[in-house]
């Protein structure tokens, strides 16, 4: 699949601001600074569709982008930024939960984890949350240009173990810097969008 068109639609604060036209949705979530904005910009071929971190942990909005006039990308707020308070975390949980509950348009969630590190407790909590709501999950290991191939393979095993995935589960890999992994991710997205 090729993304020919990507248009920002709305930064929603409340549920009643979400689009309600029944186009399918693919959501993106991950720890702040994991490379989520960069990944979205890379796959849509736009340098600045999504802002790259200026103040991590500050965006508390659900951003909708119309893709190819066919489906939405939904950019969910990042989690796990070290300096946020308990009340900020509660606000974040509320926003995510509000989006996840009964979102029938939502066909898959792309969960981004940093390829260099073991998934954090927040990553594991997010994974369990998505499972609980029974959405399809695509796991993407980001910033693979920062480590060797050898280290990457080791880390992918660690990531699989942390989430309790089968040894043959295919974690997608991505580098926005080197534009790697784009085709595989877009193929997965195409499957999701074309399924029913
Ligand atoms: N080397 C490298 N750096 C990246 C990559 N993706 C993102 N970054 C950098 O990581 C930082 C956070 O990226 P951003 O996309 O804003 O992360 P977000 O907070 O998850 O949206 C920025 O400084 C990016 O330039 C990547 O694939 N490779
Ligand atoms: Mg971002």
Task: Characterize the structure shown.
The protein is an alpha/beta fold and 196 residues long. It has one domain (6-194): Rossmann fold, CATH 3.40.50. It has 5 helices and 7 strands, in the order E-E-H-E-E-H-E-H-E-H-E-H. It has helices at residues 36-43, 86-100, 121-132, 149-163, 182-194; strands at residues 6-12, 24-30, 62-67, 71-75, 106-114, 137-142, 172-173. A 7-stranded mixed beta sheet has the order 1-3-4-2-5-6-7, with helices on both faces. The radius of gyration is 16 Å and the shape is globular. The two termini are 17 Å apart. The model has no long low-confidence stretch (mean pLDDT 93). Necessary for normal cell division and for the maintenance of normal septation. Its cofactor is Mg(2+). Belongs to the TRAFAC class TrmE-Era-EngA-EngB-Septin-like GTPase superfamily. EngB GTPase family. Residues 22-195 form the EngB-type G domain. This is Probable GTP-binding protein EngB.
Q: Output the CATH class name.
A: Alpha Beta
User: How do the strands line up in the largest sheet?
Assistant: 1-3-4-2-5-6-7
Per DSSP, what share of the residues sits in E-state strands of 2 or more residues? Answer: 15-25%
Q: Helix content range of the residues, please? A: 25-40%
Runs in which pLDDT lies below 50 for 5 or more consecutive residues are none
**Bound ligands:** guanosine-5'-diphosphate, magnesium ion
Rounded to the nearest angstrom, the radius of gyration is 16 Å
Cα(first) to Cα(last) distance is 17 Å
CATH architecture designation: 3-Layer(aba) Sandwich
Q: Which structural class best describes the helix and strand composition?
A: alpha/beta
CATH superfamily: P-loop containing nucleotide triphosphate hydrolases
Instruction: Tell me the CATH topology.
Output: Rossmann fold
- Specify the number of helices: 5
Order of helices and strands: EEHEEHEHEHEH
Largest sheet, described in full? Answer: 7 strands, mixed
How many distinct domains?
1
Q: Please give the number of β-strands.
A: 7
